Amino acid sequence: MKRNITFTLISFLVIFSNSLFSQKKGFYENVQKKNVSKVLDDLNLYSSTADFKNYFNLYAEESTFIGTDANEVWNKKEFMAYSKPHFDKGKAWTFISLKRNITFSADGKYAWFDELLDTQMKLCRGSGVLEKIGTQWKIRQYVLSMTVPNDVSKEIIKIKTLIEDPFISDLKK
Questions:
Q1: Which of 63, 44, 38, 55 is nearest to 128 (CA)?
Q2: Where are the alpha helices (DSSP H) in 49-152?
Q3: 64, containing H or E segment
Q4: C-alpha R_g of the chain
Q5: How remote is the C-alpha of 48 from its chain's centroid?
Q6: How far, in Å, CA of 33 to CA of 6, rounded?
Q7: What is the pLDDT of residue 2?
Q8: The pLDDT value given to residue 22
């Protein structure tokens, strides 16, 4: 009888503690998704209001921005130099997030995202990785890509071919 009571009690504690752990993990993930979303929302806000300092404070010191052109692969310092004239005009670019997905590493230190954006280039996809540094999420990598509807991809490829074939040849050397 004592064995049954002990076994039942231990089983109850194991099930109950797993349930609490799952609730904490779910709560933690939801809170962190809001925190990561805030960074990405602020990124879009600061670019549209030309807030250079706050925009680049969202990036980790060791970060990369990959733009829509094949030549646009910049570290933070290079991206700042490219962006400064745009921000100095009073409005850099305006991206509005339409749909966003966020996923976390098992240890909760990294988050990766993808989102569809309404931009001056029409639909684009933003994707990247954030790292939790201290108590703040910082962008480690941001990739901006233009989307190409399948129905017009052949026409786009024709246009790109003239421009990109020489670039591809250079890369193959």
A1: 63
A2: 52-57, 76-88
A3: strand 59-66
A4: 23
A5: 18
A6: 40
A7: 61
A8: 44
